[in-house]
Amino acid sequence: MSTPSSQRPSSPTTHLLYLHGFRSSPQSMKAQKVAARVAALHPGVTWWCPQLPPSPAEAIVRLEQGVRDWPRERMTVVGSSLGGFYARWLSLRRGCRAALLNPAVLPARDLVKYIGEQTSWHDPSDTFHFRPEFVDQLRSLEADIARESARQPAAAASLFAIVAQGDEVLDWREMQAFCQGGALRLLPGSDHAISDFDEHIDALFDFLSLAG
Question: Which parts of the chain register pLDDT below 70?
């Protein structure tokens, strides 16, 4: 699958940020596959996949500080689930491109039931406390996205999404609406983790248009 010219950036991506989902980590399957492909085929690209703190406010501060000196016209952010929500926020804030993988749309609504102690998927011994104020922080970010999306409508050149109709966690219709205007790869099945990611990684990399 080649990328239409309308989706190609004017400059290749030289800086790539990957954001994992809730209770996840840089050890996630998709993050690892993207990292390996970048290292093998695009070694000159700056790659960053940080472990995100449970606090959305702290996560946003860390991300903004981390990409502060990145060239916005040559950076792209990829995010999965809650990371997709953060990716959308950051792309609107920075004016950069974003690729969303089954993105969370209304995390304040969906994560309120997780208030309390939680464990990480990839290390059950790693626990954290998801606090009530984190829901309020997510609600504030949701308002930011709604406001900025109205000011900066998505286009195929700036936003790409992979959305699975078989997602058992998130509503694909909400995700589709969240990514309206962008280039959408709608999967008739699959699941929240996009277990068949190998079948779609070429489409993601076509959009990323990485340098070198």
Answer: 1-10
Question: Alpha-carbon distance 21 to 177, whole Å?
Answer: 20
Residue with tokens 């903004």: 64
SS (H, E, C) 55-109: CHHHHHHHHHHHCCCCCHHHEEEEEECHHHHHHHHHHHHHCCEEEEECCCCCHHH
What CA–CA distance (Å, rounded) separates 107 from 105?
Answer: 6
Q: Which amino acid is at 71?
A: P
3-class DSSP state of 32 = helix
Contact (Cβ atoms closer than 8 angstroms) between residue 130 and residue 118: yes
pLDDT at residue number 131? 96
Q: Looking at the domain covering 11-208, what would its CATH class be?
A: alpha beta
